[in-house]
Write a structure and sequence with these properties.
Blueprint (H helix, E strand, L loop, with lengths): L1 E7 L18 E7 L4 E4 L10 E3 L3 E4 L2 E8 L12 E3 L6 E2 L10 E3 L6 E2 L12 E3 L6 E2 L12 E3 L6 E2 L12 E4 L5 E2 L12 E4 L5 E2 L12 E4 L6 E2 L13 E3 L5 H6 L7 E3 L2 H17 L1 H25 L10 H15 L7 H11 L1 H10 L6 H8 L4 H10 L1
Parallel strand pairs: 3-6, 4-7, 7-9, 8-10, 11-13, 12-14, 14-16, 15-17, 16-18, 17-19, 18-20, 19-21, 21-22
Antiparallel strand pairs: 1-2, 2-3, 5-6
Helix pairs in contact: 3-5
């Protein structure tokens, strides 16, 4: 049985809660399912009080834990306050961020299996995003009218690019369509007016009408498909300059020169060079991986030393008081931890704060036993709701 409840968020138990700058907890609306112990975030825009939001992986109601597995279609639509959002690994289905006009950053877990239609449509300040690696389909109009979206990496497991997925993404300059994609739907990249370079993977079989219509600045298309993908009609590349070069495999040149739509462009048989260059770069990356990680660790240690020095100088701050000094501590801490986003240095970063800030050590010794983990205590303590969270936990 499902019941709607209004809950005060307890900060996420996972360390993901600290991945972005100034992400604070707040109040959200949930729909919970008592049968399977899951919860979904529902219409919550009116409860968002800050520009940054951490969605917890787990919530509690009357002493029972619920895993947050979904963000529903009405969750944050047209929520102009949001600038930064962290989605926890527990979420499997994502929706509900359309027309968030100030959204700049959203961190997604690779555990997301499905994203809804128009989930980020008209998020006009979204500039870049990393999609979940296991995503197999991008739904309709997912990024439509994201006019400032400059960079996106499509997951390699992707099989279909749906209708109007990137419609009117004016700032997109290049796109690489992965090798597992077989179908590019209608209007997929229509009116991406600054798109200059397209790479089409080897498995694409069909491109629907107006998929790249209005992309008037395209100069190069590299297509690794041995046989020319079938085009719905000549509207696929409507208003694309016919002087644009189509780079294909040498053995496929004649096929493209005879194929409907493709034959109208400048066919060049040099795509194998691009492929070989990619292979060489991949091997080079593998060979240098150890050195790169060592370099990152050295850089991290330097940052740790600087921050430790800074924290020790502010060790007299009373973090239990909701003061300007605490807000400054929160900001510097989140800036610091943001440097370690999704790296193996995260635990070192958190531990350094525990080691070098006396008020935190004292508070942890006093009330740390109320929390399941040190991370859970720390996430709560640097928030503006620490006293309320502590009181709730003690009641349970």
């Amino acid at each position: 049985m499902k019941t709607k409840i209004f809950l005060t968020i307890l900060l996420s138990i996972t360390s993901l809660a600290l991945y972005s700058e100034r992400c604070q907890p707040g109040n959200l609306n949930y729909e919970v399912n008592d049968e399977d112990g899951t919860a979904s975030v529902s219409s919550s825009c009116e409860y968002v009080k800050t520009d940054s939001l951490v969605i917890p992986s787990e919530i509690y109601s009357y002493g029972k834990a619920y895993s947050v597995v979904e963000i529903s279609s009405d969750a944050f639509t047209e929520c102009d306050k949001l600038r930064c959002v962290i989605v926890p690994p527990s979420v499997k289905k994502l929706d509900g961020f359309g027309m968030c006009s100030n959204l700049e950053h959203i961190s997604l877990s690779d555990n997301i299996e499905e994203i809804g239609a128009g989930v980020f449509a008209a998020c006009v300040n979204l500039k870049e995003i990393v999609l979940p690696h296991n995503l197999k389909e991008i739904n309709e109009a997912t990024f439509a009218c994201c006019v400032n979206l400059k960079e996106i990496v499509l997951p390699h497991n992707l099989k279909v690019i749906s209708k109007a997925t990137f419609f009117a993404c004016f700032s997109l300059t290049e796109i690489e369509i992965p090798n597992n994609v077989t179908y590019i739907s209608r209007y997929a990249f229509q009116k991406c007016i600054n798109l200059k370079s397209i790479t089409i993977g080897k498995s694409v079989k069909y491109i629907d009408m107006e998929a790249f219509a209005g992309c008037s600045n395209i100069t190069d298309i590299t297509c690794f498909a041995p046989e020319p993908p079938q085009c719905k009609d000549d509207s696929v590349f409507y208003k694309v300059n016919k002087s644009a070069s189509i780079h294909v495999l040498p053995q496929s040149v004649d096929l493209y020169k005879q194929a409907y739509v493709w034959k109208d462009f400048n066919i060049v048989g040099d795509a194998d060079r691009t492929y070989n260059n990619c292979v060489r770069e991949l091997k080079q990356t593998e060979n240098e991986k150890f050195e790169l990680e060592l370099s990152k660790r050295q850089d991290a240690n330097i940052k740790l030393l600087y921050f430790m020095d800074s924290i020790s100088k502010h060790s007299t701050i009373d973090l239990q008081g909701m003061t300007a000094a605490k807000e400054g501590f929160q900001l510097s801490t989140m800036n610091y931890l943001n440097e370690f986003e999704r790296t193996f240095y995260y635990e070192e970063a958190v531990q350094s704060i525990f080691d070098y800030n006396e008020p935190i050590i004292a508070e942890y010794n006093k009330n740390g036993h109320c929390f399941s983990t040190k991370d859970e205590f720390f996430n709560a303590y640097i928030s503006s709701d620490y006293k309320a969270i502590l009181e709730i936990i003690k009641q349970h």
